[in-house]
Q: What sequence folds into this?
């Protein structure tokens, strides 16, 4: 066998390996992008759930909390804004405000022991707590995926392949004003 | 990130399982050899084949029958969203946090001792089982920590590994036991005659070797089995902290479990490693026969995670507490593990005092609710609990004689609420009382001022009682979304 053929075979094997590698990276990028999309869909489902729960919560509370018109309006308004938001940036701002309004509302609920004893309200409250948690966890899972994807897009050598197929960095999802979300502690029994 | 860590731990588990498998084969081979008078290697191979077959049959049975069997033995009941909304919600939260593809089935065991376990071959097909005592004793955050630990077992595929390891251990135990017995009873004469024969020296050596293996084998297999089990426990704890971002939840749940006086009565002994804490001998401490790491260490590691809730923080705390130099997770994988912030505790009020009698009572009520008991809260303060076999429409309170209507089992409470919620939001972005009325029937109730008042929903028969201090005008039925208009 002449050296020429050996060189050709080596080049062929090398090219084949390269092509297989590119295919592998491309597929993993597609897979990761889909995982991100999936995680985002999960966030949207949970946000929708939250928006659906709020009117019912407000409705139930209204019968008891007769002097809290301002709070109800704040929650309803924040909800309306949140349902109207569409870009990731807008959504995170609006949902952040809605979270604040809701935690204010929950602080005021503490003043109404009869409302807190209402079975209907209690189960709604559990649903709301769970929904808030789900949003947080879905966000957590989404951001994990985004981090993983972005690492792949930025790191060498997969960044070359990502550049070839126009894969750009994904945006992580943060609720605005994380610090302000901490509800003030109110205590009634000394 | 976090999956690579699982991969690293998986390699170690593979190694231990391979070691155990190798040991099982060796045992089979040597015992087979000892049965043949001429130490024919084919007899050894036959022994190996028998050992493998025993293991394989046990494995198949465990994979396809064990889940039903374990759940059956422990008397677990499957619960859905309607029967126990909070538990269901917590499991769903953890499912979302771990990006699991399918919701695990949830079971509740009627047992007052707090404990939990997970079963299942893969994240696609899994179950989580908690005892009624656990639900009764734990706050929401604590329950979440425990559920996250179980989800950790599922996504780390621990049940699968533990089933493989447990069946190997089982086969080693079975084969050794049979061999020792056969030596004692059946083979006495042959053993004696052969030792007088020509090749007696080598034959006796094989028999002694196989006897030694049969005696020490089960001990060694147990040590291997439990060492796999302990590793997986630490890893599931780390996963729980990582998923909930709140290590204190699991730490205080473990503390409550440690403090509980009863041990689980319904657990088969082979299933011990599946539980969050060992249901039997809890205080074996750091011995090689413990299925679980010492609870004190687990709690201290979780409490020591002051910097964050990521794997890297858990491992730092782990090294600090156990003083080992062997990290739980190899360092190369840790660099990829991102750090995670600890979240705030949930706003739910936590009753710090852990009243055992109260918890027992609560555990009983949870099981009754799951078993379709009806509850009537009488105005005199007595809570009447009616079994589903109670067929009458009404009864008098045994303490004060007040008449009550018997409510139908209230299983679709949340379904009703959610249906109205969707109906409400479908109409407009702001809540309108009109929309509420459209969602169901309206029933008018005349208020009787100054006294407790009872009425039943015309639509579904659910009974309600309103306090004399109740001033509202609109109520909604929990089970059928009928609106009650209370008129003065």
A:
């Amino acid at each position: 066998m002449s050296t020429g053929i050996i060189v050709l075979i080596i080049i062929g094997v090398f090219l084949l390996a390269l092509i297989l590698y590119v295919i592998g990276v491309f597929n993993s990028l597609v897979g990761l992008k889909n995982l991100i999309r999936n995680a985002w869909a999960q966030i949207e489902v949970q946000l929708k759930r939250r928006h659906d729960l709020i009117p019912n919560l407000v409705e139930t509370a209204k019968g008891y909390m007769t002097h809290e018109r301002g709070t109800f309006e704040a929650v309803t308004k924040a909800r309306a804004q949140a349902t109207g938001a569409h870009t990731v940036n807008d959504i995170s701002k609006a949902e952040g405000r809605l979270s604040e309004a809701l935690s204010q509302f929950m602080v005021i609920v503490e003043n109404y022991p009869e409302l807190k004893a209402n079975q209907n309200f209690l189960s709604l409250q559990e649903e709301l707590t769970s929904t808030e948690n789900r949003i947080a966890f879905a966000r957590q899972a989404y951001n994990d995926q985004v981090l993983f994807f972005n690492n792949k897009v930025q790191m060498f050598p997969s960044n070359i392949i990502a550049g070839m197929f126009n894969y750009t960095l994904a945006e992580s999802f943060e609720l605005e004003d994380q610090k302000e979300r901490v509800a003030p502690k109110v205590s009634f029994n000394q | 990130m976090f999956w690579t860590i699982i991969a690293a731990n998986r390699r170690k588990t593979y190694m231990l399982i391979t070691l155990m498998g190798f040991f099982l084969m060796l045992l089979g081979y040597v015992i087979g050899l000892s049965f043949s008078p001429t130490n024919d290697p084919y007899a050894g191979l036959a022994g190996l084949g028998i050992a493998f077959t025993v293991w394989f049959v046990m494995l198949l049975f465990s994979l396809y029958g064990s889940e039903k069997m374990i759940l059956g033995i422990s008397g677990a009941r499957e619960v859905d969203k309607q029967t126990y909304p909070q538990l269901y919600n917590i499991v769903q939260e953890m499912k979302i946090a771990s990006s699991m593809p399918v919701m695990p089935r949830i079971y509740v065991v009627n047992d007052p001792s707090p404990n939990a376990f997970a079963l299942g071959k893969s994240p696609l097909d899994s179950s989580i089982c908690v005892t009624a005592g656990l639900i009764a004793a734990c706050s929401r955050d604590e329950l979440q920590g425990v559920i996250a630990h179980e989800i950790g077992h599922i996504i780390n595929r621990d049940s699968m590994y533990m089933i493989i390891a447990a069946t190997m251990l089982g086969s080693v135990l079975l084969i050794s036991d049979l061999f020792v017995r056969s030596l004692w009873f059946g083979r006495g004469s042959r053993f004696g005659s052969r030792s007088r024969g020509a090749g007696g020296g080598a034959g006796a050596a094989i028999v002694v070797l196989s006897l030694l293996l049969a005696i020490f084998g089960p001990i060694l297999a147990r040590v291997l089995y439990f060492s796999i089990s302990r590793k997986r426990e630490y890893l599931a704890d780390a996963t729980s902290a990582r998923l909930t971002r709140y290590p204190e939840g699991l730490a205080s749940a473990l503390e409550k479990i440690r403090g509980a006086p009863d041990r689980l009565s319904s657990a088969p002994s082979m299933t011990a490693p599946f539980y969050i804490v060992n249901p039997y001998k809890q205080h074996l401490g750091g011995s090689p026969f413990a299925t679980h790491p010492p609870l004190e260490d687990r709690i201290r590691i979780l409490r020591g995670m002051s910097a964050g809730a990521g794997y890297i923080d858990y491992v730092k705390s782990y090294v600090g507490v156990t003083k080992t130099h062997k990290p739980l997770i190899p360092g190369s994988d840790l660099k990829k593990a991102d750090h995670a912030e600890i979240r705030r505790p949930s706003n739910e009020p936590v009753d710090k005092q852990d009243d055992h009698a109260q918890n027992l009572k609560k555990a009983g009520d949870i099981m009754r609710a799951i078993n379709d008991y009806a509850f009537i809260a009488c105005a005199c303060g007595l809570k009447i609990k009616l079994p589903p076999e109670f067929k009458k429409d009404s009864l008098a309170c045994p303490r004060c004689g007040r008449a009550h209507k018997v409510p139908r089992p209230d299983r679709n409470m949340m379904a009703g609420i959610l249906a109205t919620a969707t109906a409400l939001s479908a109409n407009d972005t702001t809540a309108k009382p009109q929309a509420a009325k459209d969602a169901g029937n309206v029933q008018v109730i005349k208020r009787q001022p100054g006294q407790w008042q009872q009425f039943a929903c015309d639509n579904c028969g659910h009974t309600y009682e309103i306090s004399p201090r109740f001033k509202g005008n609109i109520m909604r039925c929990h089970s059928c979304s009928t609106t009650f208009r209370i008129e003065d």
Q: What stands out?
A: The radius of gyration of chain B is 29 Å. Chain B touches chain A through 49 residues (CB under 8 Å). Chain B has two domains: 1-339, 372-487.
